[in-house]
Amino acid sequence: MGSDETLSEKIEREYQNYMANPDGGVDALYPLLVSYLNRVAAPIVREGRHVRQDALEDLVQDAVIYILDEGLTRFEKREAKFASWCAVIVKNRALDWVRRQSRHRLDILEEETTVSDLNRYGEGGGYLRNPEEIILDLERKLALCESVKCYLQLLVNMDEKPYRTVSCCFTMVLFHRYHKGSKELSSPSWAYGALRENTVEIGAEHFLHDMNSWMPYLRLRWGDAFLDGMDLQEDGCYVSDMVFGEHFKVKDFENWSRRIRERIKREFVQAEAEKSIGLEL
Amino acid sequence: MDRGHLDAQDFLKYLDAEDDSEEYAVWMESVQEHLEQCEDCQRALRKALLADGLDSDEGLKEGLQILSEEQKIRRKLLEKYLLAYREDQRIGQLAKAIREGYVWNRPVYKSELLRPAGGVRGETAGLHALCYYSEQGSGEIREKGSAENRGILSYVSWTDGVIRVELMGRISGNRMVVLSPETGSDVRPFCGEAVYDPDAQMAVVEFPAEKLPERYRLYLDTEEQPWVWS
């Protein structure tokens, strides 16, 4: 046990000690686990650039209780270290927290800040509740906006069967144009029906024009790639026939949509990794 | 030994909450050590988490909703920055926000108000001033009057202790106007809302001149800002 011993090695040692002598208790193991799991979960349990300390503490506490209650006996010494197994547990809980957490509230945008509020604030008007938190919240929303834009851009740039890819995006367009507040956004079966209904008698060029004009604020444009992706025999066909060929049923649409989105996710993560790390992946 | 930067496959694997196999735990060992120390990979992980959120129908719907409110978010953020700025006296916070693109309130043009030596322009004495401005980047300074930028005609005048900014032309609603001192000044920026008058087809805001520095920049929020794709 040298001074260079890492935290995970210390945990491993204390875990071995405990297993050799369970009556010795977990007093030595407990603080090491808390410290280690904090380090694992901190990069995940965040709002923007800031760690959500309250959530992090709760989450780590729950994970440690689970590990000490059940994990110590469930974990069997194999190739992986005990600390790594604990890391997986807390990491998964942190990811769950993020997924539950991602409900963004937009009501803050409706709250009016008037000029008199602005000028009063500097003079002790006490207008704002916790401005730092509000700023963090807004910054997080903007970061999300940027991500959505990148996400959609990747969709536009997809090189396979653009009209089918576009049809996935069509859901989003329809959502914005007709169904603000709809709960059905991007439900593939809904998209399938809506797209089919709206493209029964329009040609590809008309459809492309509509798509581009429907989403001006998105600044997304499908160009020649859309038409280039058509097969020769599809020239002059209605979009409905192209997208929903005889054998392209709702299930195929769902699979197509899922596959496209998986690919976008992969490309998005890769692009962001390249930007953040500067790696050629 | 550090395993080096994580790649896209690593991030996707990291996001997999289903796998709790032994192999996965062994892999985590190699990843965790690096992740704890590498800010770049932590940043990339946060982006990967966003992508993960967009992958669900609910997440995508929410993302699109927020995207449709982007303009409002930017405007609100500008207000909050200004409030924080006024409260904390953190010089440069507004400029930083603008530079980093949190807010779009770019200077439509630089406006310089210069106190005259005596009321040169025939206006009453005291705080009166000549109003000069130049379009940003042009270097050309013209006397008084107005300039057109993004279809909005603007007029700045300074009389009776009030600086009045009038926005005309293609304008159809209230707009946020910021008068910000030159960099290095310890004077706070002033933020005001130019209220649109449909009859006059102009939006007007007035600021108390005595609290303003002699030179400042005028920022006007822009409704139209094309996205720049990287």
Structural account:
The complex is a heterodimer of chains A (281) and B (230). Chain A contains 12 helices and 2 strands. Chain A has helices spanning 7-20, 29-41, 53-74, 82-101, 115-121, 131-157, 162-178, 188-198, 204-214, 224-228, 239-243, 250-277; strands at residues 46-47, 50-51. Chain A has a two-stranded antiparallel ribbon with strand order 1-2. In chain A, helix 7 packs across helix 8 and helix 8 (188-198) crosses helix 12 (250-277). The longest helix of chain A has 28 residues, at 250-277. Mean pLDDT of chain A is 72; it is low at 115-129. Chain B contains 6 helices and 10 strands. With 230 residues, chain B is an alpha+beta fold. Chain B is 33% helix and 28% strand. The model of chain B is unreliable at 88-92, 101-153 and 222-230 (pLDDT under 50).
Question: Outline of chain A, from the CA principal axes?
Answer: elongated
Range of helix content of chain A: 55-70%
- Helix and strand element order of chain B: HHHHHHEEEEEEEEEE
Percent of residues in helices of chain B? 25-40%
What's the multimeric state? heterodimer
Average pLDDT figure of chain A: 72
Specify the biggest β-sheet of chain A: 2 strands, antiparallel
Low-confidence stretches of chain A are 115-129
Structural class of the secondary structure composition of chain A? mainly alpha
The main pleated sheet of chain B reads as: 10 strands, antiparallel
Unreliably modeled segments of chain B: 88-92, 101-153, 222-230
Q: How does the overall form of chain B come out from the CA principal axes? A: elongated
What separation lies between the terminal Cα atoms of chain B? 35 Å
Our count of helices of chain A gives 12
Q: Which structural class best describes the helix and strand composition of chain B?
A: alpha+beta
Strand order of the largest sheet of chain B: 3-2-1-10-7-8-9-6-5-4
User: What are the secondary-structure elements of chain A, in order, as H or E?
Assistant: HHEEHHHHHHHHHH
Mean pLDDT of chain B: 60
Radius of gyration of chain A: 26 Å
Distance between the ends of chain A: 39 Å
The tally of strands of chain A reads 2
